Amino acid sequence: MKAIRILFLSVCSLFFSCSGNEEPEKHPVVGKWHLSYVDDSSVIDNPHIIGMEFREDGTIRQFDGGVSYEAKYIISDDTTSISVIEGGKPVTEFKLRLLTRERMEMEEGFHVVTFLKVK
Fold it and tell me: What CATH code is carried by the domain that includes residue 73?
């Protein structure tokens, strides 16, 4: 009986020590992204920055130079699309081709747009 108590206490202490102050891992889309390529053409030399900032609370800020606006976003369960929502209705849907912690490729119409995450 004493061995079972010791085993139980050991497992509990291991569980609580592992779940300590570690922050839960964020979804790869959360963060600030800058448009870098449209198809195979670089847009890095563009005179103004085009990008998006996805926030953990489900809001997105899109910016194009000095103009920006905010909306909400939803990522599909299978992470194949991101829908931008305004007034409770989807207004834009991006098809995701690739999403890593550093790079996001989306289909927008007939083009593939590539965003790189800002450090």
Answer: 2.40.128.370
The length of the chain in residues reads 119
Question: What's the token pair of residue 91?
Answer: 């207004």
- Residue range of the domain that includes 84: 24-117
Question: Cα separation of 27 and 96, whole Å?
Answer: 14
Per-residue pLDDT tens digits for 97-118? 999 999 999 998 888 999 999 9
Please state, rounded to an integer, the average pLDDT across all residues of the chain.
78
pTM score, two decimals?
Answer: 0.71
List, in order, residues 6 or more apart from 30 with CB less than 8 Å away: 54, 55, 56
- Is pLDDT above 80 for 18? no
Q: Is 14 contained in some domain?
A: no
Is residue 8 assigned to a domain? no
Domain count within the chain: 1
CB 53 within 8 A of CB 61: yes
Torsion of CA 38, 54, 66, 114, to 10 degrees: -10
